[in-house]
Recover the amino acids of this structure.
């Protein structure tokens, strides 16, 4: 949009400036030509009469005084030929004829085309030939005029750039504020100032942001409340089921209750993940942080490895980050039996990859896999399908720490979950 506005404004201003300059130069041409003709008409009759009255030996001394920028006098026959005159030459010759009258008969011919030049030939009273050489041209442009025109163009371009910036800056601020909206609120608010339209739009956006955050918090609160309240009756049902005599029905009932309990706990965890942004950010040594996480998994007998390191601390929310990486590792261990963590520095921050050699995810379902309650395995078994909230929780917490989570399939099989972490949280 900024480029289009700048192009439209600059094109319009440059066309208008070029038109104005063209009209000015054309008017200057007409004025200069009119002045040339008028000066020539009055000057020729006076100069010829003066030379006619002077003694022959003094005429050469007066020629420099009578010379002008566009015409001069030559004591002699000049260049006589048959080259015809153009329209301008014919008009000026006719004017010279009218100015000198019948006493001085005039003939004329062209002597040059670039620049255009012609000569008018006549004789003085004593029979001496006299040639009037005319080079029609308008007054030359002043040396400073192109500099002034160039400065005007630069000024127009600068004004257009400032105008475009003033117009597009509120839109850029609006886009950044929209990207900062989170379920827990605390997004970037727009300054409600400037032009009336911008101030009204900023106030409406801020109010909309508050409403969206409130609706999202209410939704999460409802989910958390329902999940929390279900835990008590499920626990009671489990206790009663365990008191029953051993039977196939009792085992199935306890299995179903266990799956319900798992689903409820995952629901509570997902609801709480929306409040990840409330954790205060601190500077974290990622090398030590990830080493500790990997050692914890290895102590539990899990095959988890770490490669790469970064030299600078990162400003983030450590508990939320630990939960994100933990969920991704749990997923890798669940489907591949092992997980790998790779860390490296990027231009925008730090990339933390969790990789496995499991079955991967179909390409058309990579984005959907990050949605809550979406399960690639349609089975009801929590051992195979799960609750469908692990990746959703990781995605929710990634947003809370200002990161982005991207899934992709690895060459040779397996899944890569790449967490792109900024070196510093936005707005801090």
């Amino acid at each position: 949009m900024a480029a289009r506005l700048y192009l439209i404004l600059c094109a319009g201003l440059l066309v208008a400036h070029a038109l104005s300059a063209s009209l000015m130069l054309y008017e200057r041409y007409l004025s200069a030509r009119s002045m040339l003709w008028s000066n020539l008409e009055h000057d020729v009759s006076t100069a010829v009469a003066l030379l006619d009255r002077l003694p022959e030996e003094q005429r050469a001394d007066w020629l420099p005084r009578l010379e002008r920028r566009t015409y001069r006098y030559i004591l002699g026959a000049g260049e006589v030929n048959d080259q015809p005159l153009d329209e301008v030459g014919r008009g000026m010759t006719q004017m010279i004829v009218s100015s000198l009258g019948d006493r001085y008969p005039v003939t004329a011919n062209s002597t040059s085309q670039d620049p255009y030049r012609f000569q008018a030939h006549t004789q003085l009273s004593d029979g001496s030939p006299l040639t009037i050489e005319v080079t029609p041209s308008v007054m030359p442009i002043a040396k400073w005029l192109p500099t002034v025109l160039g400065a005007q163009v630069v000024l127009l371009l600068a004004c257009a750039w400032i105008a475009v910036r003033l117009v597009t800056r509120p839109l850029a601020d609006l886009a950044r504020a929209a990207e900062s909206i989170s379920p827990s609120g605390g997004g970037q608010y727009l300054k409600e100032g400037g032009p009336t339209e911008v101030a009204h739009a900023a106030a409406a956006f801020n109010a909309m942001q508050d409403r969206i955050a409130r609706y999202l918090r209410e939704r999460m609160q409802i989910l958390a409340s329902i999940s929390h309240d279900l835990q008590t009756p499920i626990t009671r049902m489990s206790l009663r089921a365990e008191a029953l005599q051993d039977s196939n029905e009792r085992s199935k009932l306890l299995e179903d209750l266990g799956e319900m309990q798992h689903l409820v706990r995952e629901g509570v965890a997902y609801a709480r993940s929306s409040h990840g942004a409330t954790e205060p950010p601190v500077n974290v040594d990622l090398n030590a942080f990830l080493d500790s996480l990997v050692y914890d998994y290895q102590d539990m007998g899990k095959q988890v490895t770490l490669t790469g390191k970064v030299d600078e601390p990162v400003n983030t929310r450590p508990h939320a980050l630990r939960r994100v990486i933990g969920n991704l590792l749990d997923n890798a261990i669940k489907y591949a039996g092992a997980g790998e963590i790779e860390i490296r520095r990027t231009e925008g921050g730090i990339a933390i990859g969790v990789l496995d050699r499991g079955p991967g995810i179909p390409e058309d379902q990579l984005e959907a896999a990050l949605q809550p309650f979406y399960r690639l395995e349609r089975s009801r078994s929590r051992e195979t399908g799960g609750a469908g909230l692990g990746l959703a929780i990781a995605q929710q917490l990634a947003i809370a720490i200002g990161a982005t989570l991207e899934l992709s399939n690895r060459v040779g099989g397996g899944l890569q979950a790449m967490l792109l972490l900024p070196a510093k949280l936005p707005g801090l």
Q: What stands out?
A: The chain has a mean pLDDT of 80. The chain is about 55% helix and 15% strand. The two ends are 29 Å apart (CA to CA).
